Amino acid sequence: MVTTLRGSRVRHRIAELGWTIEMAGERSGIPHGTLKNNTREPNPQPISLLRAYDLLRALNQPGYRQLTIEDILSSGGDGVPDEPPSKEQEQETNTGPGRDGGSGTGPGKGRKTAPKRFDGAAA
After folding, report:
1. Which of 17, 40, 70, 109 has its CA 20 to 30 A from that of 119?
2. Are 7 and 44 in contact (CB under 8 A)?
3. pLDDT tens across 44-57, in order?
4. H or E, element range at 16
5. 3-class DSSP state of 14
6. CA atoms within 13 A on the CB side of 64
7. How far out from the chain centre does Cα 88 lie?
8. pLDDT band at 89 (very low <50, low <70, confident <90, very high)
9. Residue of 32, 79, 82 lying closest to 55 (CA atoms)
10. How distant, in Å, are the alpha carbons of 15, 22, 26, 58, 59 from that of 62?
11. Distance between CA atoms of residues 74 and 82, nearest Å
């Protein structure tokens, strides 16, 4: 599931802790460039729920009020969280080429092979 962060709240907690975005990214395991894009205002880049929880664990330091996931995730603007995606929206379809780099139109298509040998050719 993908969602967006409340950038101002996340940046406020980072400042409260005396960290930079780079330090928060390092401690949460999220690249700092990605974290900057996830917390920008307006139009933040979406973030996976798994990464949001990683960030939450990093931001919940001893001696500070403990945040919940609802504190750092953005709602739809009306204060009501968005509905979870339907089963059809969750399923990902692979539209790219196969592992062998081919178009995936048939067995062995696009696969590089050695030249064929003729019966009389020396090995």
Report:
1. 109
2. yes
3. 899 999 999 999 99
4. helix 7-16
5. helix
6. 16
7. 20
8. low
9. 32
10. 15, 20, 18, 11, 10
11. 9
Q: Where are the domains of the chain?
A: 2-72
Q: What is the dihedral of CA 83, 88, 89, 95, to 10 degrees?
A: 180
Q: Which residue has the tokens 């339907």?
A: 86
Topology of the domain covering 2-72:
434 Repressor (Amino-terminal Domain) (1.10.260)
Sign of CA dihedral 60, 64, 67, 72: negative
Q: What is the pLDDT of residue 91?
A: 53
For 10-57, the pLDDT digits (tens) are: 999 999 999 999 999 999 999 999 999 999 988 889 999 999 999 999
Classify residue 5 by its DSSP letter: B
Percent of the chain with pLDDT over 70: 66
The single residue listed with the structure tokens 């920008």 is: 40
HEC string for 40-86: CCCCCCCEEHHHHHHHHHHHCCCCCCCCCHHHHECCCCCCCCCCCCC
